[in-house]
Amino acid sequence: MRVLLVDDEEELVSTLAERLDMRGIDATWVTNHHDALAAVEQEDFDLALLDVRLPQMNGLELKRLIAERRPEMKFIFLTGHGSEEDFKACSAESGPEYYLIKPVQIEVLMAKINELTQS
Amino acid sequence: MPVLDRFKPKFLDHHDQSSGMYKSLFNFRLLWKQSIVITLAVVLLPLFTLAFVNYQVSTDAVESELLLRTSRLVSNARRTLTSYLHERIIALNFLILDTSFEQLNSQARLGDLLDHLKSGLGEWHDLGLIDHTGIQVNYAGPDNLRGVDYSQQEWYSKLNYKDQDSYHDTIGMRSDISDVFLGFRKAPHLVISVLHNNPEGQHYILRASLQIAQLSNILSHLEVRGDGDAFLINHKGIIQTPSRYYGEIMTQFPLPVPPASDRTEVFESEDHLGRAIVTGYAYITGTPFILLVIKQKATLMAGWEAARTKLLIFLAGSVLAILAVVFSICTYLVNSIYRADQNRLASLHQVEYANKMASIGRLSAGVAHEINNPLAIINEKAGLIKDLFTFRQEYANDHRLIGLIEAIIAAVDRCATITRQLLNFARNIQVTVQKVDIRQVVADVLAFQNKEADYRNIEIKVAIAEDVPEFFSDRGKLQQIFINLVNNAFAAMKEGGRLEIISRLNDAGSHIVIRVSDTGCGIPPENIKKIFEPFFTTKSGSGGTGLGLSITYGLVKEIGGTIEIESVVDRGTSFTITLPIEYPKQQGEQNARIAG
């Protein structure tokens, strides 16, 4: 399974990628939307984990751009903010159960990834 | 006093301690006083002025009328009296001109003449003839007065004095009218004398005495109103005819003799008994008499006084009515302004409260967001270390290291719980109507109070019946209601208290009943009715604004519920909130946003 991680916190996203690797998931991480779009152009991914608040472009817009290129991809949103507006918008995009507030326990994240990829 | 307190307007006890934009716009007590004083001044001053002027004009008119009538009465009476005396002088004069001295000197003839006088003009007592030496040479009458010498009498000298200014100058006769006196008979009478000169140049006098009964009769038949008195006095002030109030005949008149005047005069004064009187008088020319008409002013004015009393009672009634109306209207208006001002202040506070909560919400969300990212890094780093330990055999058996890492991850999880609560709190401050689970709302609110409860040894019991369903309501408002009630309960309790939140469905299944009770200090019965009023506080000086429960009351109303309070001093307080399961449409539309 191939997962794309997008978050502007490099420390976070790199560590999370390494942890997912340990659990048998091929995780690629980037810290901005340019790299994210470039990555989906070059490689196939089953799922993307997107931070909602990214510099220059928010996670929702990025999701739409990626979905245009890769309609089969699934998405999970990760956020530290959890505002009502974000929650509503992201719930509308991918369902409220795939809107996770940081920090997330790896077990919870793995369960969500498995749910999505097997559905 | 409690009965009076019930009617006492609240603004009278209003003491504005707030400042800035929350300060009252008015000093209500002063405003009330000014309104009453100005309104009363505008209404009562013209009323009193008109009443006073009208009173003065009416009094003057009545008094003028009174003086005029008295003057008219005195003038008429003077004419009557003058005519009466004149007739008798003319009669005597006729006799002295028509009858010779010799005939008059005849006893029989003089007696006949007296009888004729009595039959024609009545009241004649006797008739006498006095010769030029002053000796009464003939006499007809009941007394034996023949030979009496009058030459030394004052009236004789006056009548005999050629250049005197006497009655004869006016009517062409030399005559004299005496004062009333008792004389030999000891009966009041007056004497009329007429002098005649014979061709030989010797004079003789016809002298007749008159009883005063007829004269008195004329005066007593005058229509003198007002306990009036009409009588004659002479120029020395001796009463000449009977008086009702001012002494016996031939006694001294108790008041000063009025000054001489050719005309009828009227003046006001006080009599010897201190009574106000109106005196009319006239000197009767050619006689020693002064006609006096004295009226009691109090009696004359009695009718006017009665009318004046009625007017004064009417005026007093009007003033009382004006006072009552002005007082009521001013009180009502100032009270309305007071209530509007209080509502304004309460609204400002409510808006400020809502803004404060929104600010807290934004702050909470900001803090949570800023903390969540580093927390997530710590979480992932610690998680990676744990993963490394778990996946690599050389560390897998080092339980101490794994324990330390798990402790870090557990601490991160605790922090994450706090930041999620903060986010949850912030999110629910927004005005939204959504499906609400009362259990979750209570749990969210208590999450922030659990630590304080632990510190203060306060036991918290939450019992929500299983059949209480999720329902549509404004979660933010509900949350604020519970925060306020729980904060109040905590403030009322000392260490070791007990807070209970119990919820159940009502019997009809249409409403959720939530009871928040504490074992705090309770509220005295006299304060219970005021507890939901804006600015009512028992925490004076300790920062209480008196708005917490009034805002709570407003919030409960806004979401269609009711709130009731029961309290026993020193035993505790219970608030019972009843909320509809169906969110009221009106409130839902007002709040616009319905959460998905």
Describe this structure in words.
- The complex is a heterodimer of chains A (119) and B (596).
- By secondary structure, chain A is an alpha/beta fold.
- Chain A has a single domain, classed as Response regulator (Rossmann fold, 3-Layer(aba) Sandwich), CATH 3.40.50.2300.
- Chain A is 49% helix and 20% strand.
- In chain A, strand 4, helix 4 and strand 5 form a beta-alpha-beta unit.
- In chain A, helix 2 runs parallel beside helix 3.
- The model of chain A has no long low-confidence stretch (mean pLDDT 89).
- With 596 residues, chain B is of the alpha+beta class.
- The radius of gyration of chain B is 58 Å and the shape is rod-shaped.
- A five-stranded antiparallel beta sheet of chain B has the order 2-1-5-4-3, with helices on both faces.
- In chain B, 51% of the residues lie in helices and 18% in strands.
- Chains A and B meet through helix 1 and helix 4 of A and helix 9 and helix 11 of B.
- CATH top level of chain A is Alpha Beta
Which consecutive residue ranges of chain A, at least 5 long each, have pLDDT under 50? none
Question: Uncertain runs of chain B with pLDDT below 50, 5 residues or more?
Answer: 163-170, 587-596
SS summary, helix count of chain B? 17
What is the level 1 CATH name of the domain at 431-596 in chain B?
Alpha Beta
The residue fraction in helices of chain A comes out at 40-55%
The total strand number of chain A stands at: 5
CATH homologous superfamily of chain A - what is it? Response regulator
Query: CATH fold name of chain A, please?
Result: Rossmann fold
Overall average pLDDT of chain B? 84
Helix content of chain B: 40-55%
Please give the order of strands in the largest beta sheet of chain B. Answer: 2-1-5-4-3
Task: Kindly state the number of beta strands of chain B.
Answer: 16
From the helix content, strand content and strand pairing of chain A, which structural class follows? alpha/beta
Q: Assign an overall shape of chain B.
A: rod-shaped
Order of helices and strands of chain A: EHEHEHEHEH
**CA(first)-CA(last) distance of chain B:** 57 Å
Query: What would you call the quaternary organization?
Result: heterodimer
